[in-house]
Known about the structure:
Oligomer: heterodimer
Structural class of chain A: alpha+beta
Order of helices and strands of chain B: HEHEHHEHEHEHEHEHHEHEHEEHHH
Strand content of chain A: 15-25%
CATH topology of the largest domain in chain A: Phosphoribosyl-aminoimidazole Synthetase, Chain A, domain 2
Amino acid sequence: MDSISCPFPFQQYPHVLLAHGGGGKLMQQLIEKMFTVAFGPKPATGLHDSTVLNLPTSKIAFTTDSFVVRPLFFPGGDIGTLAVNGTVNDLAMSGARPLYLSLGFILEEGLEMESLWRIVRSIKTTADAAGVKIVTGDTKVVDRGKGDGIYINTSGIGVIEHGLSIVPSSVKAGDVILINGDVGRHGIAVMASREGLDFETTIESDCAPLNDIVSLLIKAGIDVHCMRDLTRGGLASALNEIVQDVSRTIQVSEAAVPVREEVASACAIMGFDPLYVANEGRFIAFVPEDQSSRALEIMRRHPAGQGACRIGEVLADSRPVVTLTSYIGASRILDMISGQQLPRIC
Amino acid sequence: MKYLDEYRDPKLAAQLSRQIHKITTRPWVIMEICGGQTHAIVKFGIDTLLPEKVQLVHGPGCPVCVTPLEIIDRALAIAVRPEVIFCSFGDMLRVPGSHTDLLSIKAQGGDVRMVYSPLDALKIAKDNPRREVVFFAVGFETTAPANAMAVFQAKELGLRNFTLLVSHVLVPPAMEAILSSKSNRVQGFLAAGHVCAVMGYNEYPSIAAKYKVPIVVTGFEPLDILQGIAMCVEQLESGRYEVENQYARAVKKQGNTHAQDLIAKVFCVTARKWRGIGEIPQSGFSLRSEYKDYDAEVKFNLGDIITQESPECISGIILQGVKKPHECPAFGTKCTPEHPLGATMVSSEGACAAYYRYKRVISPL
């Protein structure tokens, strides 16, 4: 993809203009000389108001997500990689095989065309890596000052090719909770980059597609009861969302949750708890105890699961709370966050 | 992680817990001064490792919690002005004033910015010469050096568009206010390690002697706090009341004298009102007259401010260690982090927020 030279006349239009979303010649030029270059030629039947798809199964998963992030580019990814992986991962959490994405851009007048091209390229690369196709899209341009450069919405369709019911209500007492790696990197990477905080080592986002590692688990016959990706609000919020629908106590061990040293340091400085920090390539899976070792082996063999480990279990207790065994062995609740984490004073 | 993991070792924690159980023969009430310590205690469950006879009460060392309502209302009145860029630490943004908070002012169009250091606010002032940049200088002795540095540099640079809204408070006078109160229950203190890292602990021996209370300068990790408690209980059991330093890896007796010099250059000691507690003599800093051009209260003549504190909030007696957060009838019902009645429910160092976040459901189990 990097080798494709984009035929868009960057010198003539170095910045996005309102007319690039106006439905006229400039918009047509943007679609033909940039978007179709990346996402494939227009169909032989011509561009139409909607796309028609053939699906291999009648049971599908369908989801949508919008992406607003500052800065647009950060260590380990950009808004384009997020827009693809975010929706791919939401589909994967139902155990679906993601196939198609829509791509909606809201561009701010004045955005550098080179930045747009860079984002389009990373959307293409990420979509290829995840094995999904961008099949429909839309572009609007808003006045300068009315947006943060670019907002992206993606919707996705995936097919369900298994008989499992991967939903919170399938979670059972005795289930083991597995995580595919260390937490907190994405949130800290974006924040450090936004606020211009320089740490000794650059913290890179964990942004990654999870559909492949999930399909390995399902194909291996692991009876996955529930999965959740650990985006906004982090691990703590995901556990609290699930516990509400499960009516069981979930118990996790603070010491078992992997946190990289640089993330732990940054959190210690800022007064953040890594369990509440966002991730973009992390998920938890609820699996039966007797299959948990095999599930872990499968996860660890995949690049997105090398740091996989067991972090907790579902208890028979019917009180819907998440409890955490702290580093020093004491027990407390792990609550959902109120508002957002704000850096402390001292 | 180096310098953290070794202070969270469960085996050593259990060992210290056994030691405290072993030496405790009578009931003792110990106050940890700093809100950071309070949060560590409930977050790691340190209180659950203590004998019933050792009771921890939570002190006033939460800068956000003790910043008086008048100052918060002044901050809000300044922040709505169109010419102002109002800079604050993140913690202060959600603290309720009489009618609103800084995040709501921001949502309504005020230019309120979260910064990580007063020097970031100074840079904003340099970059925006046509705007008035105000930094909300709250906190204890810990934040005073950086705030002093910002004003010192602003004067050196001749910046005319940078001011501080100062609400600095000091720990030792608050300890004395608590000890001399009729309702006082505190028999020993864990002094705030980071305050002492700046100021040293030369001010404490006279307090320990006058009120016959042991004072142990203590850190913030679980083993620090357990060791601080062990040292404090040991003194109480043996009838000693001395000043000891558990946090020697960060605190020297003299403190950081460079920081102290800078503070003395810019600030002078003054009476300060503490939210929920009232006025305490000689308990805070204000800018010296040489720096009055950098005082937001002077620059923005706001007149009298009529404040309205929630009648149901008992944060004052919580901050003095007389009651615990869950003993408040509004706790978790009328008062939550989403709808706080007082600042102690908001701050990441507030005792009510700590109880709400970490202890709410577990206690009735």
